[in-house]
Task: structure prediction
Amino acid sequence: MSSTGDAVFVWTTLCKTLCKPAEHRVMAMRYAVATNRWIQPPVPLNSARDTPSLWPAAALDANGNALVQWQQADARRTQAIHGSSYNADTFQWCGDAILSRTNYGAASTPAIAMDASGNALAVWPQRFSTLTGDEMQGIDARRYDRESNAWQPAERIDSHISDYGGMFNPSIVVATNTGDALAGWLYIPHPPPLTGAAEGRVYLAAKEAWDIRPRFDRSVDPNNPRLGGTVGGGYPVLASDPAGDQVAFWAQSDHTAWASYLYAPGNFRPPEPLRSAPGAVVGAITGAIDLNGHATAVWLETAADGDSLWVARYQ
Result:
């Protein structure tokens, strides 16, 4: 949803009744706040007969322009990131195009966010081979420039060459006023017994460059501070206010809930534990940050007497 209330909804479907032969499709539908209605009919953004379309993600700017991405196999039968865009001036969707690097390995699970001016940042995991022939997975990013209506080249923003681990399920948030961004993901090293870590990368719009690499969870391997220790972090949940204040929430494998804050400009503060009931197991966690930089976390705990919902607010 945009700051003005317009929205775009995307989903995947298998078209069998109207499509001969059957086709996997990504569908999109827009909501216009000016008319208070969903605009019919849904629009197909692609057509794929032999491979499913997966993991659609969308972003919308204040003028109603939209960007959509999804995962789909390319001509090599390798998973790639496809994308389409909606132009609010012409009321048209453009055809889909491959956005991930085609000379690399499989790309998956994209995430995208957009600022008020229509500039966007997208991130996804993509596999590649090292010079020694080992295969590993890192995080790629690509920036969309609204003024030129073009995607800039993809770049790698993080990888762990030392242990050939993988990064999974990235997410990203953008400060709508400044264009600064925070991306986060779960890093799982290889081989075991090293444990995972909640990690991220900060994008500074003023420099048009990716900057610091926050390590969210508090687990540490004494032999390598960048690798996970005995307590692995979960998938980080991210939030940003329009001014660039950012927060990350995550649940660790020791069943505790944590948060880390960045107040622009600056670095992330040390992780802070969120209050929990003694002996409880923290499950799903989510959160948000308001226009004044106040963050709220909500999480589920399971104890001997059942499940309970907890809330913490940072002033």
